[in-house]
Design brief:
665 residues, alpha+beta, Muramoyl-pentapeptide Carboxypeptidase, domain 1, eleven-stranded mixed β-sheet, four-stranded antiparallel β-sheet, globular, disordered N terminus
C-alpha cells in the first residue's frame, strides 16, 4: 500500500496537467518515459536548452532539496555580483564657484526729485450766511533742489560692478534716501576719513583691504558738471565698498555650502540699507563699521592672536625634527638633540622646572634614555596627547609647533569660519570641534564639561552644521543608515542571507512587519525599488552603546556612547561613519538634561528603550576649526584631518580672482 499520496498539479509542455507526487512518491511511467526520451533524443554532449530545462525538471522532481539549494546559490551569486556594483556615494567636495560680481546701472536714480515748500493749510472761514470766505492768494512756494538732485544727471550713464546684494542695496538706499552720505558742501566730508581708516584696517580681521579700496575724487580744475560727476561716482563707490565690507564681515567672503556637501550652514541675511543709515548718523563711523565684525570672545581672541603672530618673527629659530622620525624607549636617533631642544623651547615653565636636572644633564647623546622618556611623557600629557613616550608624528608636531605662517593662515581661516555660525552661540551650548576631536558643554555658573570624541573617517566625514539638542535616548536601538546597509551589509548578506537575524538586527517592512533578512530582496533595496528598515537591538554590542543624544537633522548625525572604548586612547580619532562618539556620554546626557550622572545611570539600568525630552534651548555646533579658543583662554592649533583648510584656501583664492577681474572691468 502506497503512502504520501498528496498530489500537486504541474503544467508540462503542451499545457497538459500532470499529477506530481511529493518527494519520495512514484512518478507515473508515461511522464518518466517522456522525460527520458527527451534526454536520450538530445544526446549527452552539447545538451540543448530544452534538455537543460528537462534536467532542471528532473532536479525539481527527484531532488527538490538539492534544487532549492542550487537556487539559493544562484541567488547569492547574483547578489554578490550586484553588491560589487551598487554603492551609496558619500558627500563630495565641489568645484567652488565664487560669488559673481555684476554690473548694475544707476540710471534709475538719475531722475531729479524736487522738494517743494508747500504752503501751510489754513482753516476755512465761513460767513454768517454760510458762504466760504476765500483766502487771499498766496505766492507759489519756490522749488528747492538738494545738492544730490543737482548732481543726479551724472548717474544716467553710471554703473558699478558689484555683488548683486550690493547693487540692490545701492538702488534701494538712494531711492528711499536721496541725499549724499559722504559729500558735504561740495567736497568729501570728514566722516570719510574714519570710514576709509576702517576699510584699510580690514586685514586686522582677516579680510583683504584691496577689496574695499576707493580713491578720493580729484575735483580741482573741473567744471561744475564734471565735478558733480566725480563726487557722485565717489559717493556710489564708497557706499558699495562699505556694503561689501559689511557683507564680508557678517557672513564671510565664502559660501561654505559651495565648498562641499559636508557643509550645511545657512548664509546670514544682512540689512544693508539699515546698516548704512546707522553709519550715516554715527559719530564714530570707523567704530560703527568695525562693529559689523563678530562681537564675541572667540573672535576677539582670534583677532588678538592674529595681531600677535604678525608682530612676531619666529621663522629664524624654528626647530626642525626630521620628518618620519619614530623613536621608542632605549633606541637611538640623531634627532634626540632636536627633540630635547624643542621641549626646552615649547614646553611650559612648570614642565621644565620639574625636569630641570634631566635638561641640565643632557649632553647631546642620541640614546633615548629612561630620563628622557619621562621628559617626553610629561610633554605629551601637557599637550593632551597619549603619554606613551613614543616620539611619532603627532608628538613631533606638538614639539616643533606650527610655523608662524601656518598659524596665521589657520587663524584667518578660523575667522572666516566664525562668520558662518551665529554671532551669539548661546549661554548653554555644546560645541564640537572635529579637528580637535573634542566636545565641550558650557553654561553659566557651571563648570565646563569637555571630553574626547570620535568623529567620522575621512571617507565618512562628519558634516559642519549647527542645530538644537532635543532628546536623550536610553538603551537605544541603532537604526542602520541606508548607506551602511548598501555599502557594508550587502556584501555580508550576499555571503549569508541570515546575517542580520544572527547578528542581533531587526528587519521590518515600512508597515512595521518583522521579517527574516533571508526573505528580503536586498538588490531591490539597494536599487531603491524596495524599502526596508534595519535596526540593531539595544544591548552591550549595540553600536550606540547605552545612550544617545539627538538633535534631529537631515544628516542623521547625533552624539552617542560606543562599545569601542579603546579608540579614545588614540590622538587622531576619525573612525566613525559620521556620528560623534562620546568618551563620557552619561556626563554629557546629564549636563544637557540638567540632571545628575547617577540619574542617567539609573535610567539606563532600568533596561528599557526610553526617550527623555531636553528642556530649554541648547544649541549644538558640529564645527571644524583648526585654530580655536580653548577653555584655558588660549588659541590652540589642530591638524587639518579632512583637508578642509586646503579647500577653503582654494575658495578664498577663487573669490580673490573674481574680485580682481571685477575691479579691472
Amino acid at each position: 500500500m502506497r503512502t504520501n499520496k498528496t498530489e500537486k498539479c504541474m503544467q508540462l509542455d503542451g499545457g497538459k496537467a500532470a499529477s506530481v507526487r511529493q518527494p519520495g512518491t512514484f512518478l507515473g511511467n508515461s511522464v518518466k518515459a517522456a522525460l527520458m526520451a527527451t534526454v536520450i533524443a538530445s544526446g549527452f554532449s552539447g545538451l540543448s536548452v530544452e534538455t537543460a530545462s528537462a534536467q532542471g525538471l528532473f532536479q525539481r522532481l527527484f531532488n527538490p532539496e538539492n534544487h532549492r539549494r542550487q537556487q539559493e546559490r544562484e541567488r547569492q551569486e547574483h547578489l554578490r555580483k550586484q553588491a560589487a556594483t551598487v554603492k551609496v556615494s558619500a558627500p563630495r567636495y565641489l568645484n567652488y564657484s565664487a560669488d559673481a560680481w555684476k554690473p548694475v546701472s544707476l540710471e534709475t536714480l538719475s531722475e531729479k526729485k524736487t522738494a517743494e515748500l508747500k504752503p501751510e493749510l489754513q482753516e476755512q472761514e465761513v460767513a454768517e450766511d454760510g458762504t466760504v470766505i476765500q483766502p487771499e492768494s498766496q505766492p507759489q512756494a519756490p522749488v528747492v533742489l538738494t545738492a544730490f538732485d543737482e548732481a543726479r544727471p551724472a548717474l544716467k550713464n553710471m554703473s558699478l560692478t558689484v555683488l548683486p546684494e550690493v547693487g540692490n542695496a545701492i538702488l534701494a538706499y538712494y531711492r528711499e534716501h536721496p541725499d549724499f552720505v559722504w559729500i558735504e558742501d561740495g567736497k568729501v566730508s570728514a566722516k570719510v576719513k574714519d570710514v576709509q581708516k576702517a576699510l584699510e584696517n580690514a586685514d586686522t580681521f582677516g579680510l583683504d583691504p584691496v577689496d574695499y579700496a576707493v580713491a578720493l575724487p580729484a575735483t580741482s580744475n573741473l567744471d561744475e558738471a564734471a565735478r558733480d560727476a566725480a563726487l557722485m561716482r565717489f559717493e556710489m563707490e564708497l557706499s558699495a565698498a562699505v556694503f561689501a565690507y559689511i557683507l564680508d564681515a557678517t557672513r564671510g567672503r565664502v559660501d561654505p555650502n559651495r565648498i562641499s556637501q559636508y557643509h550645511d550652514l545657512p548664509r546670514h541675511k544682512v540689512d544693508l540699507v539699515a546698516s548704512l543709515l546707522d553709519l550715516a548718523s554715527s559719530e564714530d563711523a570707523s567704530a560703527a563699521l568695525e562693529a559689523h565684525q563678530p562681537q564675541n570672545d572667540h573672535f576677539r581672541k582670534l583677532t588678538a592672536e592674529l595681531a600677535k603672530l604678525r608682530a612676531e618673527d619666529q621663522e629664524t629659530d624654528q626647530i626642525v625634527i626630521a620628518p618620519g622620525t619614530f623613536l621608542k624607549a632605549g633606541k637611538s636617533s640623531p634627532e634626540m638633540k632636536n627633540i630635547v631642544a624643542a621641549i626646552q623651547q615649547n614646553g611650559s615653565q612648570e614642565l621644565k622646572e620639574a625636569h630641570a636636572e634631566t635638561l641640565a644633564a643632557y649632553d647631546g647623546a642620541e640614546v633615548y634614555s629612561p630620563e628622557l622618556v619621562d621628559l617626553v611623557k610629561s610633554f605629551q600629557k601637557e599637550a593632551s596627547l597619549t603619554p606613551d613616550g613614543i616620539v611619532g608624528k603627532n608628538t613631533i608636531k606638538a614639539m616643533v609647533g606650527e610655523t608662524n605662517a601656518a598659524k596665521i593662515a589657520k587663524v584667518e581661516l578660523a575667522m572666516e569660519r566664525s562668520r558662518w555660525i551665529p554671532e551669539e552661540l548661546g549661554e548653554r551650548k555644546v560645541f564640537i570641534n572635529q579637528a580637535a576631536f573634542t566636545a565641550t558643554y558650557t553654561a553659566p555658573d557651571e563648570m565646563p564639561l569637555s571630553m574626547r570624541v570620535v568623529v567620522g573617517k575621512k571617507s565618512n566625514q562628519t558634516n559642519f552644521f549647527y542645530d538644537k539638542i532635543e532628546i536623550v535616548e536610553y538603551n537605544p536601538y541603532w537604526g542602520v543608515p541606508y548607506s551602511i546597509i548598501v555599502n557594508e551589509m550587502l556584501p555580508k548578506l550576499a555571503q549569508d542571507p541570515s546575517y542580520l537575524d544572527r547578528a542581533g538586527y531587526e528587519v521590518t517592512t515600512p508597515g512595521g512587519r518583522q521579517i527574516s533578512s533571508a526573505a528580503v530582496d536586498w538588490y531591490a533595496v539597494a536599487s531603491k525599488q524596495q524599502s526596508i528598515n534595519v535596526r540593531q537591538y539595544p544591548g552591550r554590542s549595540n553600536a550606540l552603546g547605552e545612550v544617545k543624544i539627538l538633535f534631529p537633522n537631515r544628516h542623521h548625525i547625533y552624539m552617542h556612547d560606543t562599545p569601542a572604548k579603546n579608540l579614545f586612547k588614540k590622538d587622531m580619532r576619525a573612525f566613525s561613519h559620521g556620528c560623534i562618539r562620546l568618551h563620557d556620554p552619561k556626563a554629557m546626557a546629564a549636563a544637557v538634561l540638567g540632571k545628575s550622572k547617577d540619574y542617567v545611570t539609573s535610567r539606563i539600568g532600568a533596561g528599557q528603550n526610553e526617550q527623555e525630552k531636553v528642556n530649554g534651548d541648547i544649541p549644538v555646533y558640529v564645527s571644524y576649526f583648526t585654530a580655536w579658543l580653548e577653555l584655558d583662554g588660549e588659541i590652540a592649533y589642530y591638524s587639518d584631518v579632512y583637508d578642509r583648510d586646503r579647500y577653503l584656501l582654494k575658495a578664498i583664492e577663487k573669490t580673490r580672482s573674481v574680485r580682481e577681474k571685477a575691479r579691472a572691468s
